[in-house]
Design brief:
alpha+beta, Creatine Amidinohydrolase, Chain A, domain 1, Creatine Amidinohydrolase, 30 strands
């Protein structure tokens, strides 16, 4: 069935492209800062193809249109693109070209490629330049062609900015600026252009609300060895925030004035620029007069290593969040089949429990509440028009998190609602074992996530299974739920930054199995890297867990666990009961004791061994 709304929008865009002399047009998923999640103002790609996922690039030309997205969204994109005439390009799958390879193959000599240069990072723009060099393709990047024909486009956001007190931040802006300047100088630069929003919030100890679930404000910064300039919408700043920034010796400029400011800088200034984060248009403005020094944002690594104040607050918040999720699981399991529970009402009840926590600010991302076969879509989101009613059979996957004054949480549990198949039990048990195997990792300092990912994936690979995503990502501190540069992933990706795990870095641990039209399983905890013993072989490292939510024993078939994984499982369940039960009602605590098998003979034996 044809989606008339999308096809009409695409035809209007093609007509505009003909008028402007543009042959191919790119629409990525990004704002002016290359953010993963964006405000409604920047959902141009969604407007022109209907795909709602957080990652994807739409290419439109006169004869067709295609969307590139990654494995997390294959199933979702297939559904959402139905009837739009937009072809789905499954990234990194055999026979599927990259966007640059596609353009190189399809574009003719001397044609024009168009895109809004403010929403395409330098690194991506350069890939197109390299791929299309021989065809002498012209680049039209100075206009938002698609946005110009979007009727009733939402306004550019400018929500109120707040100050994060140093008692919560752990370090002052002055201390952070001093660290940043040292790293900038080491790169041979005199100044630093910063556009990444969560880095900006971290550096200036402020928070905003310009992106749903991400407490960030639209802004850029230009930092020298003596000065700090912040480009931000004035209407977002209260007198209190202005005074705070002034006390930090931060000079505030209008958000839209950053290009003019850069053009007036002394010629030849060496400016550090992260080409993955700074926009193509902004880089072009810098490089006309200044000398770009291309390096990673020094703020990224500094932010990723949580300081002692942040870690202490996170530990408290994660326990409170774990209690809320445990109460939620109890509610689901004791009410399923007795009262109607839908994917939406389940998510609403969990949000209600989180909102009861005094430090709660917002969700850290829209809750993924997926029943049955819907869980096979990794980033499925129920809507009032399209959601499932949960029945006392199968499983409910809930991936959720909260923003708190004291931390950002991310946790997934797959909950058994009734009878499950033998295959589902096998898959669940393998996923649980994978998660626990990663939890127990020990490694020598210097390992990156690509060294460690196999610990989670090996048992699944041995069973001929895999999941089309990484095993883990960093998590922000009262910031974005996805944070780098640390991650857990097996695949080498050219240009993707890798960094060794440092003490204080947090990372999610979320293996899964996704079977289209059947079921999806994911179990996710958040861990923090810590130093272990140091000896003649070097500094050993390990993970400490922040998340304490029960694993559903109703889906565990221990024949698929190694003996070591059985020990890990019962030890984790025992700790969940010990840490969470004091905050539950008597009835909930009794249920949790059964749920975790805390009174099993194996668990009691393990407890005595551990204490001994």
């Amino acid at each position: 069935m044809e989606n008339n709304v999308i096809t009409q929008r695409l035809e209007a865009l093609r007509q505009k492209l003909r008028q402007e002399g543009i042959d191919y047009y790119l629409i990525p998923t990004a704002d002016f800062h290359n953010s993963e999640y964006v405000n409604a103002y920047f959902t141009v790609r969604e407007h022109f193809c209907g795909f709602t996922g957080s990652n994807g690039t739409l290419v439109v030309w006169q004869e067709g249109a295609a969307l590139w997205t990654d494995g997390r969204y294959f199933i979702q994109a297939e559904h959402e693109l139905e009837g739009t005439t937009v072809e789905l390009m499954r990234m990194q799958q055999e026979g599927v070209p990259t966007i640059e390879d596609f353009l190189k193959r399809e574009m003719r000599q001397g044609q024009t490629l168009g895109f809004d240069g403010r929403v395409v990072p330098v690194s991506e723009g350069r890939r197109y330049e390299t791929a299309l060099k021989d065809k002498e393709i012209r680049f039209a990047y100075d206009r938002d062609i698609a946005g110009e024909i979007w009727e009733d486009r939402p306004p550019l956001p400018a929500g109120p900015v707040t100050v994060l007190p140093v008692e919560l931040a752990g370090r002052s802006t002055a201390e952070k600026l001093a660290d940043v300047r040292i790293k900038v100088a080491r790169e041979g630069a005199e100044s630093f252009l910063l556009s990444k929003l969560d880095d900006l919030m971290w550096l200036f100890n402020i928070r905003g609300c310009d992106v749903e679930c991400n407490p960030v404000a639209l802004c850029h910064a230009y930092i020298t060895m003596e000065e700090a300039h912040l480009f931000i919408q004035e209407k977002a700043l209260s007198d209190e925030v202005k005074a705070d920034l002034a006390s930090k010796q931060v000079t505030v400029h209008p958000y839209e004035s950053v290009v003019d400011f850069l053009k007036e800088l002394p010629e030849g200034a060496a400016v550090l620029v992260d080409c993955r984060q700074v926009s193509y248009a902004l880089y072009k403005a810098v490089s006309k007069r200044q000398r770009p020094v291309e390096a990673s944002n020094p703020t990224g690594l500094l932010k990723a290593v949580k300081n002692p104040v942040e870690l202490a607050n996170m530990e408290k918040i994660y326990l409170k969040d774990s209690v809320a999720l445990t109460k939620f699981i109890y509610w689901v399991k004791t009410n399923i089949g007795k009262t109607e529970i839908t994917e939406i009402s389940a998510a609403d009840y969990l949000e209600k429990l989180r909102r009861a926590i005094p430090e709660f600010l917002d969700l850290s991302f829209p809750t993924i509440s997926a029943y049955g076969s819907n869980a096979a879509m990794m980033h499925y989101g129920p809507t009032p028009e399209n959601h499932a009613v949960c029945r006392p059979e199968g499983m409910l996957l809930v991936d959720s998190g909260g923003q708190y004054m004291g931390g950002t949480t991310d946790v997934t549990r797959t909950i058994v609602l009734g009878p499950v198949t033998g295959e589902q039990k096998m898959h669940y048990t393998l996923v649980a074992g994978a998660m626990l195997q990663m939890t127990a990792a020990r490694w020598l300092y210097g390992c990156t996530g690509r060294n460690l990912d196999i610990l989670a994936r090996s048992r699944l690979w041995n069973a001929g299974l895999d999941y089309q995503c990484g095993t883990g990502h960093g998590v922000g501190y009262i910031l974005n739920v996805h944070e780098g540069p640390q991650s857990l992933r097996w695949q080498y990706v050219k240009g993707l930054e890798e960094t060794p795990f440092e003490e204080g870095m947090d990372v999610t641990n979320e293996p899964g199995v996704y079977v289209q039209d059947s079921h999806g399983i994911r179990i996710e905890n958040v861990m923090v890297a810590k130093k272990d013993v140091k000896n003649e072989y070097g500094q050993f490292m390990h993970f400490e867990t922040l998340t304490w939510v029960p694993i559903d024993m109703d889906a565990i078939d221990e024949t698929y666990l190694t003996e070591e994984q059985r020990v890990f499982l019962y030890d984790y369940q025992r700790q969940v009961y010990e840490k969470v039960s004091p905050y539950l009602t008597e009835e909930e605590a009794w249920w949790l004791r059964r749920e975790t098998r805390a009174d099993s003979s194996f668990s009691l034996k393990l407890t005595s061994q551990t204490e001994g």
